[in-house]
């Protein structure tokens, strides 16, 4: 583990918010354990192990039923820890993989059978070396045939450059963490309006209203991030997902408490209908096909 790496919270609070039956944590990770699933040589950080058992324990503790587990950059393009967690969880989890352009059809099929339903394209420079857009487009074409979709991770300053690429993608596209807005600028700022227009103009683009802990300047309980997430939930109720982001890699300011994170939900999705769409109907449609 890196010397400045903050391990996940040892005893999060029980949330006051009661999630609807069948709620999905649609953005979380498993890390290692390194002795079984070593971290990738090309990784940019070395985390604390965060194995599947701990993730499933947290799921139950928060009152959720299912997980969408996202391959993180510290495991590179080796999805073994992800696939192992998916096989253990069965119908209770689906996955988002990171793949090389050289992956074989058989390898894709194995991941499909394990529950992988998407690939992630990461553009965050502190996390990965850059991949040419043509390579991503080639992968996109192949995974589209499996009925998979694409998750993209980028930061707000990169949005304008990426827009033409995002519009070319042939599948549903899910943008991580609201495109990482600068929350000091406000919801009405042209930067966030540009992100909102991207969803307005492209019906295939969704977003995760996740990660207040990364976007906040004020700190918990993340009041400065709530208006951004609420705006998206109310405007695009059928194209939003929520996730804990456990175990929160690369946090520097504080160790997030998942109970506090879950208690943000009723502030961003203030009605039972919006909560049902955000936590159950949308992720079930996208990842379980129902
Ligand atoms: C997240 C965010 C981060 C890390 C990764 O793949 C990753 O390593 O996604 C981050 O550092 O912002 O979604 O987990």
Task: Give descriptors for this structure.
290 residues; alpha/beta; TIM Barrel; 8-stranded parallel beta sheet; 36% helix; binds (1E,3Z)-4-hydroxybuta-1,3-diene-1,2,4-tricarboxylic acid
Overview of this structure, please?
This protein has 290 residues and is of the alpha/beta class. The chain has a single domain (24-288), classed as Metal-dependent hydrolases (TIM Barrel, Alpha-Beta Barrel). Helix content is 36%, strand content 12%. It is built from eleven helices and eight strands. The chain has helices at residues 52-62, 80-89, 105-114, 133-144, 159-168, 190-201, 212-215, 226-235, 258-262, 265-268, 272-287, and strands at residues 24-28, 66-70, 93-97, 116-122, 149-153, 173-175, 205-208, 240-241. Strands 1-2-3-4-5-6-7-8 form an eight-stranded parallel β-sheet, sandwiched between helices. The structure holds (1E,3Z)-4-hydroxybuta-1,3-diene-1,2,4-tricarboxylic acid. Residues 29, 72-74, 122, 127, 153, 176, 214, 245, 249-250 line the site of (1E,3Z)-4-hydroxybuta-1,3-diene-1,2,4-tricarboxylic acid. (1E,3Z)-4-hydroxybuta-1,3-diene-1,2,4-tricarboxylic acid (0GY) binds at residues 29, 72-74, 122, 127, 153, 176, 214, 245, 249-250.
């Amino acid at each position: 583990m890196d010397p400045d790496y903050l391990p996940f919270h040892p005893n999060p609070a029980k949330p006051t918010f009661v999630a609807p039956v069948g709620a999905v944590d649609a953005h979380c990770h498993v890390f290692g354990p390194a002795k079984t699933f070593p971290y990738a040589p090309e990784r940019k950080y070395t985390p604390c192990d965060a194995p599947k058992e701990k993730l499933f324990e947290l799921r139950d503790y928060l009152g959720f039923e299912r997980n969408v587990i996202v391959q993180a950059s510290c495991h590179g393009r080796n999805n073994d820890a992800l696939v192992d967690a998916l096989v253990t969880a069965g119908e209770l989890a689906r996955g988002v993989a990171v793949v090389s352009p050289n992956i074989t059809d058989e390898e894709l099929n194995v991941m499909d059978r394990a529950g992988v339903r998407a690939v992630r394209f990461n553009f965050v420079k502190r996390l990965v070396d850059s991949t040419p857009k043509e390579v991503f487009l080639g992968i996109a074409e192949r995974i589209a045939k499996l009925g998979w979709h694409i998750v993209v991770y980028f930061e707000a300053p990169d949005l304008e450059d990426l827009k033409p690429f995002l519009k070319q993608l042939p599948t549903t596209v899910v943008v991580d963490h609201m495109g990482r807005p600068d929350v000091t600028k406000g919801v009405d700022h042209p930067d966030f309006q540009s992100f909102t227009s991207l969803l307005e103009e492209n019906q295939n683009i969704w977003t995760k209203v996740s990660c207040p802990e990364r976007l906040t300047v004020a700190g918990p309980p993340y009041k400065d991030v709530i208006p951004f997430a609420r705006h998206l939930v109310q405007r695009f109720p059928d194209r939003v997902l929520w996730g804990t982001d456990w175990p929160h890699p690369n946090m520097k300011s504080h160790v997030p408490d998942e109970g506090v994170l879950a208690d943000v939900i009723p502030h961003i999705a203030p009605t039972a209908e919006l909560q049902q769409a955000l936590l159950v109907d949308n992720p079930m449609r996208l990842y379980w096909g129902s």
